[in-house]
Amino acid sequence: MPVTGEHKERAIRLLLVDDEAGYVNVLANRLSRRGFQVRKTYGGTEAIQVLRKEDFDVGLLDLKMEDMDGIEVLKIFRKMAPEMTIIMLTGHGSERAAQEGVALGAFDYLTKPCDLEELVAKIREAYQFNKQS
Amino acid sequence: MEELNHKPRSPYYRALLRRMVTVIIVVSFTPMILITWGLLYQFKTLYHEKVYAHLGEIVQKHRQNIDTFLEERLADVRFLATNFTFEQLADEAFLKQKLLALEAEHGSVFTDLGVIDEKGHQLAYAGPFKLEKANYESAEWFRKAILSQYYISDVFLGLRGSPHFIIAVRSETETMSFLLRATINFEAFNSLVENLRIGETGFAFILNRDGKFQTKPSIQITEEQARGYLKEYLLLKDKSHIAEEPDVSGKPVIHVSSLLKNGEWLMIFQQNASDVFHDFIRARLIALLISIVGGGAIIVTAYVISKRMVKIIAKTDDENRMMNQQVIETGKLASIGELAAGIAHEINNPVAIMVEEAGWIEDLLEEEEFKESKNLEELKRALTQINTQGKRCKGITHKLLSFARKTDSKIHNVEINTLIKEIVSISIQMAKYSNINIETELQEGLPYVEISPAEMQQVLLNLFNNAIYAMEKTGGTIKIGTKLSQLEKDTIVIIVEDNGPGIPESNLPRIFDPFFTTKPVGKGTGLGLSICYGIVQKMGGKIDVQSAVDVGTRFRIWIPFQKEGVQEPEDIKNV
């Protein structure tokens, strides 16, 4: 994917975590097209392994995954990479779990399916927040 | 909700009532009858013994009186015979004088006096009859009297032709024997015996050994009876005898017999058993009356109590049935809710992917190579459509999940009328398009209710939307009213009423079922009313529907409120 040159600074590094491969793939495509540097992972364990080797600015974390519970993954992320801000993606109705995630240090949450522009805005917001703190 | 039609008069409850009444009556009557019967029997035995003893005593005393009377009269005559000489007694003037003396002493007991020689010639006579020269030689009494020291005859007619009896004493001069004879006035003797009157039917009479009456009984005695008494006569020695047997008319009669005059006469006292046992019979009657009245009271009480019990049981059964119905309804909603939540989650991801993929295509269409495509606009339109439909899916899953989870349920103290006014103001615009009026009839000063305003809003909006949808083409009126419930305690009723086409009766029972809808496919999910039902249930209230085709539909919602003191958390009276 070609990175558009509209950004003067380096691209925001995103970590995508969701066990729905179809969703991860299409989201990665669309976000890459909008200038993000996206790393796709298809589960909690894979994401943790990736995080050991690489650094990210923002993580997009699905709450419901087959191999690991999103909240558990969140706790590990917070320990491994406290500098990474995390936005959680939830199905409708799991707001309570998402709120719990926010309490545990996640930046915010969005419900799936979400508007891409909204998501992009949220990622930028998170990145700004990351930079300030 | 046709299960709520309770029938306390159904055969089951009638049978239950019958069983209860029967058991109570049997249980209370059996001991009552046994005890009453036992006591009466005991009482009767004792009473009979006592009455018999009493009668026996009276009759004995009376017998002694009569015996004494006879002995005394005999003594009177003997006194004359022994203390005066034959010459004196044969003097009629003297005799008359003595008769007068006796009359003075005893009244009219002695009718006459006579002196009779051993040949039966009456030598002297004092009395009212003309018997101066009478000859008694062949008279039975004379023959018996001349052979013994003294003699008391049976009653007979004799020469004078009226009943009387004779007391004769034999006395002797140096040359001859003679009899001093006195006649006892029958009436005087009769009245002496007749004196023995007890109760209304008790009377006495005397029989001789031949079964002839020695007194005049006041009641006719048949020959058969007389013969019966005579048999006893032969059996009796000295004692008295008591027996009870039916008389000619079949009524039980009690008679007491006793021998007198050295066993020559039999005195019989007779009284109707009903008279003798008058007190006992009255007591028995009273007991019977008390039993009947008491029994009646028991039956009435048993019936009343049982009826009340059956009513309570029927009511409890009904409540249980309703409770079960509600449990089933709630359970149905809950399981559907779980299912819905699961489905919503499952659908969410594919829909999200589809929408994103469509978005990705949209992104790609920005590339130069597609710009010239003649179908670009059509492709974009299709993608927009995919997006729109994806959002619609999201809306459906959103509804399903809110049904399952009932989110946003913070409870506040709500002024229900204010809430309704808000909703009316929201709906009134939409209603105007369909030519529908909304009328309110809100009771002022209703207490606050503790509910989630968002949920209540959802319920009322749902009802409004349904009503508006139903009258979309025809127009009409929606009335919403609030008031305090007349029947249920501490409850507010909200009534939403329309004059639309109504709901067919066949649909009414299913109207609160999830996914039940009559709207065309794609227009409704069938969840609206079942969500309403769930919400109202959670508030501790209830909702029902009445509808008639072409007349309209009325929904009623009952919402309980807490009485004053709601603000105090310690107040836990309402459990």
Q: Can you give keywords for this protein?
A:
heterodimer; A: 133 residues; alpha/beta; Rossmann fold; 5-stranded parallel β-sheet; 5 strands; 19% strand; B: 575 residues; Heat Shock Protein 90; 5-stranded antiparallel β-sheet; 5-stranded mixed β-sheet
What does this structure look like?
- The complex is a heterodimer of chains A (133) and B (575).
- Chain A is α/β, with parallel strands linked by helices and 133 residues long.
- Chain A contains five helices and five strands.
- Chain A has one domain: Rossmann fold (3-Layer(aba) Sandwich).
- Chain A has a five-stranded parallel beta sheet with strand order 2-1-3-4-5, sandwiched between helices.
- In chain A, helix 2 packs parallel to helix 3 (70-80).
- Chain B is α+β, with helices and mostly antiparallel strands.
- Among the domains of chain B are: 84-190, PAS domain (Beta-Lactamase, 2-Layer Sandwich); 196-276, PAS domain (Beta-Lactamase, 2-Layer Sandwich); 410-575, 2-Layer Sandwich (Heat Shock Protein 90).
- Chain B has 13 helices and 16 strands.
- Chain B has helices at residues 11-83, 86-90, 92-106, 140-145, 186-194, 223-235, 273-276, 278-365, 368-371, 376-405, 416-433, 453-470, 528-538, and strands spanning 110-117, 122-126, 150-152, 164-172, 177-185, 203-208, 241-246, 252-260, 265-272, 412-414, 436-442, 449-451, 476-484, 491-498, 542-548, 552-560.
- A five-stranded antiparallel beta sheet of chain B has the order 2-1-5-4-3. A five-stranded mixed beta sheet of chain B has the order 11-13-14-16-15, covered by helices on one side.
- In chain B, strand 7 (241-246) and strand 8 form a beta hairpin.
- The radius of gyration of chain B is 59 Å and the shape is rod-shaped.
- Residues 1-7 and 565-575 of chain B have low confidence and may be disordered.
- Chain A binds chain B through residues 20, 22-23, 26-27, 29-30, 33, 64, 91-93, 95, 112-114, 116, and chain B through 341, 344-345, 348-349, 351-353, 355-357, 359-360, 363, 390, 394, 397-398, 401-402, 404-405, 407.
